[in-house]
Amino acid sequence: MTTLDPRTHPFRPDLAAMHLQGKVEAARFVEGKSLEVIEPIADLRRAPSHEAPLDTQALSGERVTVYELSDEGWAWGQLESDGYVGYLSANALGPLTAAPTHRVAVPRTFGFPGADIKLPPMIALPMGARLVIAREDARFALNGFGWHFPRAHLAPLTATQPDFVAIAERLMSAPYLWGGKSSLGIDCSGLVQLALQTAGVACPRDTYMQEAALGAPSLLDDLRRGDLLFWKGHVAIARDAHTLIHANAHHMMVASEPATEALARIKAAGSDVTSIKRLP
């Protein structure tokens, strides 16, 4: 059998996706069912327990292929956006709606019940959340529920932005959270993924996946804005030739600091840069 990564391929000893039959060993194979994340943020955990490690988060509007719904209220499935596999609360999922048209492009936005920002908001959505926008007026974009979102906070899913670093900079001081992917808490690879996805660029979730998939090798002496610096288990983004931005446990937040300071501190902790990647 082929050796596949269980973090990005839905298989367990007792259960696997039907399309993996013949590629992995499992007691049974099933077809998945597509569902949609209906909570603003849904934790994806390594095991069906609220105490299990947080591997990543799915955001409102994301699609999930679910292969098992347990009696205990857990869904085991695979995220459509980056292929990550894990367990989500079944309460965070609902039937598919129309295909999303827009994403939230600012750290956080509100959906108001009418065209008045003084009304109490109905929902708060994080950067990267996806919405189906039915119509727009001068100030607001309306979804199917009639909730009004500030137009300036949204971008079409088809839109691309040339400077993903500027998106990461909007999340400055967001608290560090292992597995997090929002302004309420984010980790190093989550910051890279969220910034690139919001800019319209596909990006895998974990640092080792990003290091393998993104960009072309470059040199520290030629550091430019947008270059990615990788260590074992960590990634940072170059703001310019001398400054980095990264979510890190030293500052316990998304922080900007001189590259020389970050390199020296991480090296003193026993880790050297493994690669520098430059995106197209």
Please characterize this protein's 3D structure.
The strands form eight sheets. The protein has a six-stranded antiparallel β-sheet with strand order 20-25-21-22-23-24. The protein has a five-stranded antiparallel β-sheet with strand order 8-7-6-3-9, with no helix packed on it. The protein is mainly β and 280 residues long. The mean pLDDT is 97. It has helices at residues 164-169, 188-198, 207-213, 259-268, and strands at 16-17, 29-30, 33-37, 41-45, 54-59, 63-69, 74-79, 85-89, 93-94, 102-104, 108-111, 123-126, 130-131, 133-136, 140-143, 148-150, 154-156, 181-182, 185-186, 216-217, 228-231, 234-238, 243-248, 253-258, 275-278.
Q: SSE string, helix = H, strand = E? A: EEEEEEEEEEEEEEEEEHEEHHEEEEEHE
Strand content: 35-45%
Average pLDDT figure? 97
- Ends apart, CA distance between termini: 36 Å
Write a concise keyword list for the protein shown above.
280 residues; mainly beta; six-stranded antiparallel sheet; five-stranded antiparallel sheet; 4 helices; 25 strands; 12% helix
Describe the secondary structure blueprint for this structure.
Layout (H helix, E strand, L loop, with lengths): L15 E2 L11 E2 L2 E5 L3 E5 L8 E6 L3 E7 L4 E6 L5 E5 L3 E2 L7 E3 L3 E4 L11 E4 L3 E2 L1 E4 L3 E4 L4 E3 L3 E3 L7 H6 L11 E2 L2 E2 L1 H11 L8 H7 L2 E2 L10 E4 L2 E5 L4 E6 L4 E6 H10 L6 E4 L2
Parallel strand pairs: 1-2
Antiparallel strand pairs: 3-6, 3-9, 4-5, 6-7, 7-8, 10-13, 10-17, 11-12, 14-15, 15-16, 18-19, 20-25, 21-22, 21-25, 22-23, 23-24
